[in-house]
Amino acid sequence: MFDTLTQCEPDAIIALMQVAKADTNPNKIDLGVGVYKTDDGATPIMRAVKQAEALYHHEEITKSYVSTSGNMEFRRLMTDLILGDNHPAGDRIATAQGVGGSGALRLCVEVIKAASPQATVWVSTPTWANHIPMLESVGLGLASYPYYNKETLSVDFDAMMDTVSTGARSGDVILLHGCCHNPSGADLTHEQWDTVTDLMADRGLVPFIDLAYAGLGHGLETDLYGLRKVVATLPNVLSGISCSKNFAVYKERVGMALILAETPEQADIVQSELGLVQRRLVSMPPDHGAALVARILGDRDLRQMWADELDEMQTRISDLRVTLSEALNVQGGEVIARAVREQNGMFSMLGLSKDQVRALRKKSIYMTDSARINIAGANLKTIPQFADAILEVL
Ligand code: LMR
Questions:
Q1: What is the 8-class DSSP label of residue 10?
Q2: Which terminal CB of the chain, N or C, has fewer other CB atoms within 10 Å?
Q3: Rounded to an integer, what distance in angstroms lies between the CA atom of residue 294 and that of residue 303?
């Protein structure tokens, strides 16, 4: 039966994670997979999560099934967190807990396929490594818009607008990164969000927002601007939201699909579609991580503790950006230095060639082949060594 199969290419990010892990060089610098790390290279459990877990251990009274759409309290609290209290979407929202951010995106993709199989989904060049395979696997049409200019290391907004406005047809879906663009780190400004929202409104385009790093760019309120803008303006929005990074619950796989419909009646129908899709994919999402997030968001003290810890992570990433930028800001490194300083969240894409990335890998410095670095994997000790190595390959 398996004669027809051939060896699969490993996923680039997952493979890199394994290679870096296996490297025993004590001076290795692992800036590969998007995981937050402290100065000593650990990815600790957040204090609020630890406390919620202790409380929940006593409070949990059953392991019985929850539902195909997942933990209702989690979905309610997450919707309020993401859209803000008294959000304008009212009861036009459908939600389902996803198996991590990827599971949430997958739910949205399945709903797009069911509702609008002829739609083309437009993705940024570049985009997160799993977007295109996921969209291809359900057979949706794909197109791309230019986004990151590898020379200037910044968003090419004119080219993006040009391509979308001339190429996309009414009903097409535009996949956008809510904040902390993965892999580039280059985000739309609020003004650019306004402009692209106007374009989508004019052309009948549907935004699909991947929101995996909210809070880690400039803090929650600022990072949520784009998603809130499209929800306040457009009739239909899809969003795949991840709690992996901002609650640091990576392996618990916590995420949520949030879909805005035109009317409450339509939202009910979308809700039933989400339930059906989930049933086919995984039947029901695991509850533990979602229950912890709900425990935190529903408790004033735990919520404050979590918000403070999220701010600490965000501040550390910003500080690392400043330090790295200063170390690179010498002759030949100016463009990268500026990009690192101005970009947001964990990632920056340095515009290096594959050969340059491979040369760095020989020195136990790990980044993806696309020259994406996870700044949160660096620390004050490793930054000088890293900056010198970059300047050398330049
Ligand atoms: C990343 O981009 O490194 C993370 O989102 C982890 C992943 O699953 O790719």
A1: P
A2: N
A3: 10
> Which region, left, alpha or beta, applies to residue 257 given φ > 0 means left and ψ of -120 to 50 means alpha?
beta
Pick the residue whose CA is nearest to atom 6 on ligand 1: 34
What pLDDT score does 88 carry? 86
Residue 236: C-alpha distances to residues 98, 107, 174, 349 (Å): 20, 16, 12, 31
**Residue 266 CB burial class (10 angstroms; 0-12, 13-18, ≥19):** middle
Render pLDDT for 68-78 as a digit per residue (tens, 0 to 9). 999 999 999 99
Count: domains in the chain: 2
- Looking at the structure, do residues 161 and 277 belong to the same domain, yes or no? yes
| CATH code (residue 328) | 3.90.1150.10
347 lines ligand 1 (CB under 6 A): no
Atom of ligand 1 nearest to the CA of 34: 3
pTM of this prediction? 0.96
> Does the CB atom of residue 182 touch ligand 1 within 6 A?
yes
Query: What is the residue range of 262's domain?
Result: 50-300
DSSP annotation of 8? P
Position 197 in a domain: yes
Gap from CA of 34 to ligand 1 centroid (Å): 5
Choosing from 11, 13, 370 the residue with most ligand 1 atoms within 8 A of its CB, the one to mutate for a pocket test is 13
